[in-house]
Amino acid sequence: MKIPERKTSPQLKKTRPRREEFTLYGWNSCKAYFASDPQGLFRLFFSAERSKSLREEKKWCQVHKIPYRELDAKSLNKVAASSHHEGVVMVVKPLPKVSANRLALSGKFEGLHLALDRVGNPHNVGAILRTCGFFGVKGLILGKEEQAQITSSAARMAEGAWGQVTVYDSQNLASSLREMRQRGMFVLGTDPSAKKSLFESDISFPCLLVIGNESEGISPAVRKHCDLTVGIPGNGNIQSLNLSVSAGILIAEIFRRKL
Fold first, then answer.
1. Whether residues 84 and 161 fall in one domain
2. What is the pLDDT of residue 151?
3. Percent of the chain residues topping a pLDDT of 70
4. Residue numbers of the domain that contains 48
5. In the structure, what pLDDT confidence band is assigned to residue 14 with cuts at 50, 70 and 90?
6. H or E segment to which residue 75 belongs
7. Is 86 inside any structural domain?
8. In what order do the strands lie in the sheet with 228-230?
9. Residues 250 and 211 in one domain
């Protein structure tokens, strides 16, 4: 007699939640992530040239039964979706997003924070995050509207700063700035056409520096909640700087003031 196939009741069927994954590449970025959170590593891929330098990571994979594999350049390019992987690619658990409202409501501000308003190039976001890590900026706030987030290429450009600097997510940047300003944060906006120079302006701490995109700067809604807007003076014929370069100059000068 044929036994009928047993079917699982729709009510009893369990679905495994989809695991969130993030593709991270670049030597410094991958090494920094593993050093801070090895348990977040899901898969490891590397070139033959990098194999000996990844002994610790490969041993971890062996012990914890995590897939790892040596690949040729073409295959690594495909896994990373980029040729700028420097011979190592990790599939990892993405870092948790922290709400900017949580920071605003805490009122626990110190030193310098940075906010980006409608910066659409992830490479600029990554380069700015790297500068934040170098100078010890306490946090980077990313708006939502037209704002690039932390992508694989941004994390690569950050050279290990992703995870070292807290990244905050703001659904409404103007609202977040208003809350922080009301709780004692000095909000410093940037504007290439501002009459005041950064170098001749008084800055209070804790400070939140706001940087907009290269073409339009900070939005009118964000500008309303700035205590002061400043620019970077120049003497040459070029009218503007690359956004990440501007951010570096601004952060370095504010860091100097804090010292």
1. no
2. 96
3. 92
4. 22-92
5. low
6. helix 73-80
7. yes
8. 98-99, 166-169, 139-142, 112-117, 207-212, 186-190, 228-230
9. yes
- Give me the sheet containing 88-92, strands edge to edge: 22-25, 88-92, 41-46, 68-70
**Residue that has been written with the tokens 């706001």 in this structure:** 210
The DSSP string of 108-168 is ---SEEEEEES---HHHHHHHHHHHHHHT-SEEEE-STT-----HHHHHHTTT-BTTBEEE
Q: Which of 92, 126, 154 is the last residue of a domain?
A: 92
Residues 6+ apart with CB under 8 A from 177: 115, 187, 208, 210, 222, 225, 226
Average pLDDT, the chain: 90
> pLDDT tens digit string along 66-105?
999 999 999 999 999 999 999 999 999 999 889 999 999 8
In a domain, 11, yes or no: no
| CATH assignment of the domain containing 143 | 3.40.1280.10
Domain assignment of residue 13, yes or no: no
Residues 139 and 100: beta-carbon distance below 8 Å: no
Residue 26's CATH number: 3.30.1330.30
- Asked if residues 177 and 224 have their Cβ atoms less than 8 Å apart, the reply is no
Kindly state whether residues 102 and 224 are assigned to the same domain.
yes
Is the full-model pTM beyond 0.85?
A: yes
Domain end, chosen from 92, 120, 151, is at 92
Angstrom distance (rounded) from CA 156 to CA 154: 5
Residue 38: cis peptide before it, omega within 30 degrees of 0: no
Contact in structure between 93 and 120 (CB atoms under 8 Å)? no
Whether the CB-CB separation of 253 and 198 falls below 8 Å is answered with yes
pLDDT digits (tens, 9 = 90+) for 158-173: 999 999 999 999 999 9
**Residue 114, domain member (yes or no):** yes
Of 209, 213, 139, the residue nearest 169 (C-alpha): 139
Domain count, the chain: 2
